[in-house]
Structures are given as C-alpha cells and as structure tokens.
C-alpha cells in the first residue's frame, strides 16, 4: 500500500473546512488508494480550537480507512511540517465597511507568515492551493514569502468559477455538464474573471455556434458567473461553502492525478503567457499530467476577450500594487 501523504488545511473549523475535510479523508482528492494525514490549522482563539476539536471528533467517527492521522495546530510552523499538499482556506474576507487597505494588510500578514512557514518546514515539493479571498493576491503573497520553494507550486482557486461557467452552459444548451470540454476562465477570482466558451465543445460541436448569441454571453452569462458568489450569499445568508470545497477537491485532484488531456482552470503564476506580466497569479486554461500543470497555449484572443482580460488583469495589478509594501 502507498505511503501516507500529509495534507495541511487552514481555516479547518470554518464552513469550507467542514465541507472539505471529510472528502479529503475519504479519498476523493488524492485517490481511493492514497492514505492521508490531515494537519489542521486554526487561529489560536479558544473558540476556534474548540470547534476544531469537534470537527476532529467527527472525522474520527467516520472511521475513514484512508485517514491514518489527524493533527490540530494553531501555528503554521508546526501545521505545515513536511506537508505535501497545503490548502489555504482560512483568511479574512472583506467585511462590511472594511477598507481595501485594511483587507490587504490583514491578509498580507496572514499569507506572509504562512508562506514563510511553508518555505521553512514544508516538503520541498509541496503543492499549495489558496482558496481564502482575495485568493489570487493571497497566493501571490505566499509565493513571494517562500523563495526556496518552486513558484509554480503556488496556485489560486479559479475552479469554482470554471464549474459555475460549465453549469450555466449546460443549462443554456440543455446538454450534460460532463460533456463540456475546453472551457477557460481567465484572470482574477472576482466578478472581473472572464469565462470564455469560444473554444468549448460538446460532442465535438462548438458551444459558441450552438449558443450563437453574443448578447447572452455579454449580458447574461458573464454577469451570472461573475456575480454567482453574491447571489449565493443573498439566498443562503452565507457564502458558498460546499461548492467551494468541491472546487478545491477538483483542483487538487486534477493537479495530482491528471486530467487526461481535459482543460481545467487554475490560478497560476504567469511566465508571460498571453501577455500577462510574469508572476501575476492569473487564471489560465491548463491540462495536468504527472503532477504538473501546463498552460493551453496558442489560443486566439479576439478584441472582446482582450478587453475582458485587460480588465481582470488591471484589477489584479491593483491588488498586487496594494500589497507591494508588505512583501
Ligand atoms: P469561515 O469564516 O467559515 O471560515 C474561515 C476559518 O478560517 C475560520 O474558522 C477562521 O477562524 C479561520 N482562519 C482565519 N484566519 C486564519 C489563519 N490565519 N490561520 C488559520 N485559520 C484561519 O469562511 P469560509 O466560508 O470557510 O471561507 C473561507 C475563505 O474562502 C473566505 O476567505 C472566503 O471568501 C473564501 N472563498 C473562496 C472561494 C474561491 O472560489 N476562491 C469561494 C468561496 C469562499
């Protein structure tokens, strides 16, 4: 049987944590033959640590055959020790009335500390997914704080946007969501992301031709996908958690186990592809194989797409600028 791998999860007692940990432990993320040790991090506050204890009791009570160890931590320097995978979920999302500078500085501190801890103690091959918002910029901060780790191993979650886009296209075309191939989401995990179905196919047929409605793309599809998070908060009174956890599972599973040629979306540090400045943590269409992702290159970018990409890039550059002094 396989040697266990270590999976660190931050914000483990939060909403997403509750929807995520049980699926990691059951083998949905890394395979039904891969034993895991969970290294769970929460803030030191007693209430959070108590809640974490409760989650751990429930994990124990599932008697998952693949779950061979569970650790509770309040310090990233111990939580990330030798970890092979790190899912950084805990962060400080923007609250009502919170200034942008305040948001960026609080998260700057969190993700600088966590990047440094990964740099110091994690496996040299650790694969990092940042879920906590603002996800792209938090991933960028962690990457910059971890100069001894491969920059390419720091990623941000765009997969929820990808899955939301796929679901809208399935509804529009009346086709099964699993039949949709070659969908791309570019840019920031924010309402500015650009979900792009120009290359998408269903059964080899062009989705763009099937839909054949540019007004729907611009006025319905993009705003629906972009504002989906807000729509869920309005309906549920809480931000999306199960679908976010599901997207995190998809992202890590595909990265670790491969996509068999299928396109998925990951937020990854640019090497200049598609004219995006190097190091920008940007959503790109990728394929995964052998534990590595590869950007789908050579796609034509038309004027409307370029405009959308420029807009989401400008937002990311603004965020990057806002944290410059923290790095
Ligand atoms: P939540 O508030 O229920 O849980 C967050 C948990 O993180 C809390 O238990 C908190 O104590 C913990 N935490 C905060 N700072 C921490 C730190 N420095 N170290 C360890 N733990 C820490 O929030 P929820 O719903 O689980 O969401 C988590 C994050 O994910 C939020 O930032 C949210 O905006 C983001 N999110 C991102 C999505 C994406 O697509 N990238 C989608 C949905 C949510």
UniProtKB/TrEMBL annotation:
Residues 159-325 form the Lactate/malate dehydrogenase C-terminal domain. GO terms for biological process: malate metabolic process; tricarboxylic acid cycle. It catalyses: (S)-malate + NAD(+) = oxaloacetate + NADH + H(+). The active site is at residue 189. It comes from the Bacteria. The lineage of its organism: Bacteria, Pseudomonadati, Pseudomonadota, Betaproteobacteria, Burkholderiales. Its EC number is 1.1.1.37. NAD(+) binds at residues 11-17, 107, 114, 131-133. Belongs to the LDH/MDH superfamily. MDH type 2 family. Residues 5-154 form the Lactate/malate dehydrogenase N-terminal domain. InterPro entries: L-lactate/malate_DH, Lactate/malate_DH_C, Lactate/malate_DH_N, Lactate_DH/Glyco_Ohase_4_C, Malate_DH_type2, NAD(P)-bd_dom_sf. Keywords: NAD, Oxidoreductase, Tricarboxylic acid cycle. This is Malate dehydrogenase. SUPFAM superfamilies: LDH C-terminal domain-like (SSF56327), NAD(P)-binding Rossmann-fold domains (SSF51735). Catalyzes the reversible oxidation of malate to oxaloacetate. Substrate binds at residues 94, 100, 133, 164. It comes from Sphaerotilus montanus. GO terms for molecular function: L-malate dehydrogenase (NAD+) activity.
